[in-house]
Design goal:
about 160 residues; mainly beta; Pnp Oxidase, Chain A
């Protein structure tokens, strides 16, 4: 028998991770949809693949899984407010957020992010109450700086030992 929901959530809270914003343009619209994700990871180097998980009941789920292209912004240490804004259901995600358009796929990206990654959707796997989206990296840029991290329901930064 699997463990209870809150007990399982505590496992996730014990993992520190980079904070990313996944953003896409709704098909047939200029509207940008997006969400804050801490389940982003590189998956393969050849071909270059990344992955993230999105909950089925997320407002942006239909647009993100149908758009076929998306932008990933790995947030920098000073971008906690951007992470909070993209995490709120029903919010105007981009209001007051400086956004850029990718140069290769024209996907929405958060300006001044630590890394900006332009992806085309490679595969989508349905698993439990989430979909795992695999993206082929078509272009990427990395800037110098410190990452925004998420741990135990809080944002923070990395301190080297």
């Amino acid at each position: 028998m699997p463990i209870a929901g809150e007990e399982y959530r505590n496992i996730g809270r014990a993992l520190a991770g980079a904070v990313t914003v996944i953003a896409a343009q709704e098909r047939g619209s200029a509207a940008i949809v997006g969400l804050t994700v801490s389940t982003f990871a590189t998956l393969s180097f050849d071909p270059p693949l990344v992955m993230f998980a999105i909950q089925h009941d997320a407002n942006s789920y239909p647009a993100v899984v149908s758009c076929r292209q998306f932008g990933v912004s790995v947030l920098a240490a000073g971008q906690a407010q951007v992470a909070r804004q993209f995490a709120v259901k029903g919010a105007d995600k981009t209001r007051g957020v400086s956004m850029e358009t990718g140069s290769t796929l024209a996907v929405p990206l958060v300006a001044d992010a630590l890394a900006q990654i332009e992806c085309s959707t490679s595969q989508i796997f349905i698993s439990g109450d989430h979909a795992i989206v695999v993206g082929l990296v078509e272009a990427a840029r990395v800037r110098a700086g410190d990452p925004l991290l998420y741990y135990g329901r809080n944002f923070g930064t990395f301190a080297a030992l």
